[in-house]
């Protein structure tokens, strides 16, 4: 039944409510799509760092019906922090960045499974490596999945420039703050953090790359493939990145697609339990009362796999310190 309005004032009020509701839906903030350069040329003297054919156990992906391509991805990322109430807020907006992604995909579109696996490349060796690809590439290629690796940490970006200064000249994860506003680097950051760069750019990069891979933009490196699901994964340190992303970044309105759906359909964390990465490199702790390393419930599935070695260490440290260990 259509309700009747007995006065022009009520009719006007109802119209305004409907108008405002429509505005809130139409103008809902969504993940921005970064710009893309590539695929970058591969020559005898210039090729991707971590290319499959250069690893300790080289892989000829072409013999397996796969193609490897590298792209530069540029956009603007917020640096996040907690406010006094423990709410995630933007500390520094719109910091420009350029990073790289490595794409391994079926050569033929009809071999594609519909699944895209986005791996946050692990920087614990002070350069990018791809443990989840290393563990599961046979499965990925057998089923026709697309794998995409992202350089997410400045220390790994620095290694890229050392490897090939010309190829990676434009890569930048620079600290957006002026030099006099930057904080001393906390000792808890594995001695791999530089005041000239900002670790906290990673969160929007993760969202934006995922949104890019789902988009209909011509610059999408996998535009010709019909993507059904996009999953994010990380191992050890970058599994800790996933924990922070799931708990604190994923719930933000600005990390959703224009449709309102989440960028990622699920998450796989490898050896990441009890690890949570700070929102930015000036942070020295999480707000009181927040358990950052406990993955909060979400509508998207989260699978966490912990090996015996890590589980034993976690139990030992918890008994010794009577507390969880965060890095």
Give an overview in words.
The protein has 6 helices and 8 strands. It has about 325 residues and is α/β, with parallel strands linked by helices. It has a single domain, classed as 3-Layer(aba) Sandwich (Rossmann fold). The chain has an 8-stranded mixed sheet. Strand 4, helix 2 and strand 5 form a beta-alpha-beta unit. The longest helix has 19 residues. It is globular, with a radius of gyration of 22 Å.
Please outline the helices and strands.
Elements: H1 8-26, E1 35-37, E2 66-82, E3 88-106, E4 115-120, H2 131-143, E5 146-150, H3 154-163, H4 202-214, E6 229-235, H5 237-249, E7 266-270, E8 302-305, H6 308-321
Parallel strand pairs: 4-5, 4-6, 6-7, 7-8
Antiparallel strand pairs: 1-2, 2-3, 3-5
Structural class: alpha/beta
Bin the strand percentage: 15-25%
> How many helical elements?
6
Percent in helix:
25-40%
The shape is: globular
Model regions low in confidence, pLDDT < 50 over at least 5 residues: 1-28, 318-327
Q: Which assembly state applies to the chains in this document?
A: single chain
N-to-C CA distance: 58 Å
**Biggest sheet strand line-up:** 1-2-3-5-4-6-7-8
- The structural domain count equals 1
Name the helix and strand elements from N-terminus to C-terminus, one letter apiece.
Answer: HEEEEHEHHEHEEH
The average pLDDT is: 85
Rg (CA only): 22 Å
The level 1 CATH classification is: Alpha Beta
Kindly state the number of beta strands. Answer: 8
Second-tier CATH architecture: 3-Layer(aba) Sandwich
How is the biggest beta sheet arranged?
Answer: 8 strands, mixed
CATH fold group: Rossmann fold
């Amino acid at each position: 039944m259509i309700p009747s309005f007995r006065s022009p004032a009520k009719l006007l009020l109802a119209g305004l409510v409907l108008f405002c509701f429509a505005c809130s839906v139409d103008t809902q903030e969504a993940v921005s799509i970064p710009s893309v350069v590539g695929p970058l040329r591969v020559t005898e003297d210039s090729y991707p760092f971590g290319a499959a054919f250069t690893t300790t156990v080289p892989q000829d992906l072409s013999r397996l019906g796969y193609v490897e391509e590298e792209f530069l991805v540029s956009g603007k990322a917020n640096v996040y922090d907690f406010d006094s109430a423990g709410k995630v807020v933007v500390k520094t907006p719109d910091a420009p960045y350029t990073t790289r992604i490595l794409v391994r995909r079926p050569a033929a579109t009809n071999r594609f499974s519909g699944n895209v696996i986005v791996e946050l490349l692990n920087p614990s060796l002070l350069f990018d490596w791809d443990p989840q690809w290393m563990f599961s590439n046979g499965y990925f290629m057998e089923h026709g999945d697309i794998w995409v690796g992202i350089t997410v940490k400045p220390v790994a970006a620095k290694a890229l420039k050392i490897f090939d200064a010309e190829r990676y000249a434009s890569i930048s994860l620079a600290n957006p703050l002026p030099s006099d506003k930057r904080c001393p680097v906390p000792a808890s950051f594995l001695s791999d953090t530089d005041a000239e760069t900002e670790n906290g750019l990673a969160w929007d990069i993760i969202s934006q790359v995922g949104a890019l891979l789902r988009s209909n933009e011509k610059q999408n490196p996998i535009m010709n493939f019909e993507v059904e699901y996009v999953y994010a994964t990380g191992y050890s340190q970058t599994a800790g990145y996933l924990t922070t992303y799931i708990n604190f970044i994923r719930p933000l309105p600005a990390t959703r697609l224009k449709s309102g759906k989440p960028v990622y359909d699920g998450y796989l964390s490898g050896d990441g339990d009890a690890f949570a990465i700070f929102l930015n490199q000036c942070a020295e702790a999480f707000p009181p009362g927040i358990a950052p390393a406990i993955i909060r419930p979400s509508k998207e599935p989260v699978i966490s796999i912990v090996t015996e070695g890590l589980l034993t260490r976690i139990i030992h440290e918890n008994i010794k310190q009577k507390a969880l260990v965060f890095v």
